[in-house]
Description:
Elements: E1 3-8, H1 12-24, E2 30-36, H2 47-51, H3 61-64, E3 70-74, E4 76-81, E5 86-91, E6 94-99, E7 102-105, E8 110-111, H4 119-122, E9 123-125, H5 129-141, E10 147-151, H6 155-167, E11 172-176, H7 187-199, E12 203-205, E13 210-214, E14 217-220, E15 225-227, E16 230-233, E17 237-238, E18 256-257, E19 270-272, E20 277-278, H8 291-310, E21 323-327, E22 333-338, E23 344-350, H9 352-370
Helix pairs in contact: 1-8, 1-9
The chain binds flavin-adenine dinucleotide (FAD).
Flavin-adenine dinucleotide binds next to helix 1, strand 2, helix 2, strand 4 and helix 6.
Amino acid sequence: MKHRIVVLGAGYSGGLAAGRLARRLHPADTEITLVNAEPDFVERVRLHQLAAGQELKHRPLQEIYAGTGVNVRRARVTALDVDRRIVMLLDEHGPGEISYDTLVYALGSTAADHGVRGGAEHAVDIAGRQSALRLRERLGDLEPGGTVLIVGGGLTGIEASAEIAESRPDLRVSIATRGAFGDWLSDKARQHLREVFERLGIAVHESVDVTRVDATGVTTTAGETIPAGITVWANGFGVHHIAAASTLEVGATGRIVVDGAMRSVSHPDVYAIGDAALAEGAGGKPLRMSCASGEPMGQRAADAIIAQLTGRALPESTIGYHLQCISLGRRDGIVQFVTPDDRARPSIIKGPLAARVKEIICRGAAWVVAHPTLMIPGRRRHLAAPGKVATLTA
Ligand SMILES: Cc1cc2nc3c(=O)[nH]c(=O)nc-3n(C[C@H](O)[C@H](O)[C@H](O)COP(=O)(O)OP(=O)(O)OC[C@H]3O[C@@H](n4cnc5c(N)ncnc54)[C@H](O)[C@@H]3O)c2cc1C
């Protein structure tokens, strides 16, 4: 009987892991199934562009994985029974289930509403394609002079504000941040950020904690109101409740706790990667929810599974960062150099060159998912005899 590997989620991390597994494991003794709710690979890092009216490249999963040995199954994961090794699914035919020997959990994240009153009813987020399309529609309906408030001063909030302001100069765009604007960036990056926001006419509300959202704007802890025809919620990501509802060990926010090999600390036949996993990076800090973490995590998990099943050792390694790339519309940006544990260094690239670097990185990140078995060295390997399965030490 073949070893059944089921990968849940065909985003940056899961899509990459499935391709790498198919490229390195022999199809005679492994069966790889990739389950995804949507029919295509969605470039989440470009969803602010989609919301602002741009089109994203259509990348059907069936085409991406044709001839690779990965079976693509379009279905929504509804629950896990990790003690019986079963995943519960819902597809066009109704509820079903799939069994596995090794599971890779890569279901990504959604917008975190932090329980703010009115957020679910009145705000719109850009964490997923459907919500980004809803925002696009609402922006299309907004008359010149209309107001848009982006809540959240992190990378997603900054990129969304700049993209909307650039594409709709007739709107009044503002951003609300809990701390000081861009406070994690270097002095040079902060200065450039302020200059670009001034040029784009984006008002910045700093040290603001939003407690309520309604149809006309938001209310803050200080009792202040900020009017907005559209409130965009970009206040961090939260994970689906599927993992927390199982017996997997999860952290406080529901991310699956994994070791250096991306292996669940409670269930060794489950690997978790991308936004859904709580993994340590350089300096012992948790890896940030990002494509920049998700792809190396996908690679690491695939290599660990291959090493374990083929009886080889998994080399020690730690995932760290080099850059944070921020788009500020289509023609400007910031590339912030960072330490491996993600702290800003003094140097940056800014302006059109930074926009270009960011574009190349986004294209590269999508390319590796869209060409899942290319550029992966080594030959396909057979599984080791049961007694020879390696013990992972990472
Ligand atoms: C607007 C925006 C801009 C961003 N910019 C950057 C950036 O510049 N740099 C960066 O590093 N990161 C950025 N990110 C974050 C980055 O997109 C995510 O961290 C990354 O996509 C996480 O990868 P993943 O593989 O964990 O999940 P995803 O890429 O989200 O993939 C998860 C997959 O699982 C599927 N799925 C979800 N639930 C189910 C279910 N129940 N059943 C079946 N399938 C399901 C989804 O359809 C999806 O295909 C940005 C995010 C957004 C929203």
